[in-house]
Amino acid sequence: MSANLANQVPGAKCPFTVKGxxxxxxxxxxxxxxxxxxxxxxxxxxxxLVLTADGCRxxxxxxxxxxxxxxxxxxxxxxxxxxxxxxxxxxxxxHFALHSWWVRQFAATGIxxxxxxxxRPLVHNLIDRFxxxxxxxxxxxxxxxLPVRAVCVIMGLPWQDDKWADECFEIMKPIEQFFNYxxxxxxxxxxxxxxxANKMNxxxxxxxxxxxxxxxxxxxxxxxLLRDGxxxxxxxxxxxxxxxxxxLFFAGSETTVHSLASAFNVLLTQPxxxxxxxxxxxxxxPNFVEEIMRLYGPVQFxxxxxxxxxxxxxxxxxxxxxxxxxxxxxxRDPKKYPNPNAIDLNRRAPRDHIAFNSxxxxxxxxxxxxxxxxxxxxxxxxxxxxxxxxPAEPRPSLHGFQLRAxxxxxxxxxxGKKLGA
Length: 421
Ligand code: HEM
Hints:
The protein is α+β, with helices and mostly antiparallel strands and 421 residues long. The chain has a domain at 75-296 and 342-412: CATH 1.10.630.10. The protein is built from 18 helices and 13 strands. The protein is globular, with a radius of gyration of 22 Å. The protein starts with a helix and ends in a 9-residue tail after the last strand. 42% of the residues are buried.
């Protein structure tokens, strides 16, 4: 069947699959799939794939009522590890209330107070550690260190204490490994994840205790959880607080590390973009960050299962059938974005992508991720203007599957001075 003919039939079987694309550049592949329709059957994934920007957005608006989130099918033990009352497992009215509360905390008035006194000094502190060397592994020495400390900043946890912050990062690894962004590991991985969740709770509890007395005046997120939690549910308790804090560490880490890596890759491999950023004035850095998210958002797809027979983009998805929002494809949908594969800092609506999802489960921490990336790009452009790929190291290439980013990203530059040195 020719691709054009297939295009007439929503849900047509497509001869291509995204399965097996680990470690490859998926974008040309999405273009080939798109020729078979806006929504296609992917035999390898055993799922329908929605490939358009508008289609993915519409699908994600359905989320709670008709399409269930992957956590709903977890085993009891896995639910324990996630935290039964945290955002990922909450459903219905409680999810709506908790999600809306978090969205308010991350709105401009809630998050901007952390930029200048918190995120900016943190970024400079990390740069100071390597600036005199003239070379840097941008993932290991910067991207991997920023997000966990940024969450510490907004929680009022001791980000300056390396031993403490690195321990948190290490403790979370088995949990990350277990869930691996929506697939789950086996028994031994689960035991390690359970131990890690308990350990993280023990690490966090003393800070919650210490904050209790002063929570009325605190602006950090733990104080806000202590203050407002009881308005979210009558039986709110400390476990709710540790679960929420853990979720933010977890959701805000790997995703942001990958996004930073992709931003650095573009700055190093397309150096002319630096001039475009400077030429665009105040909107240069924010729009660059949005284009990185649109072009290289690390979350390639999100899977949902039908709670009942449901029509998605003209296809009847039977009860328990799987449907995938292919955000990586949707963000380069040529029907929505002219010249979709190019960085364009002057797009009409730069934030109109779905790298952070959309609908009832949209990312609550997007503004923090944006802030980290903006502050990082700003600091590197100012302090290390001649940052360039290290010719002695392998070139970055795309890694991962559901979560994708460039690695390794190693650079050299003219050594500079520590701030204040
Ligand atoms: C560039 C970095 C980030 C990306 C690409 C990203 C992307 C996403 C996506 C696609 C979802 C939706 C998942 C789904 O519906 O299946 C999501 C949810 C979420 N994100 Fe992010 N995220 C990022 C950073 C952060 C940060 C920094 C935080 C917080 C500190 C955060 C907290 C959350 C939470 C709590 C959810 C769950 C919302 C819910 O289930 O109601 N994310 N994120």
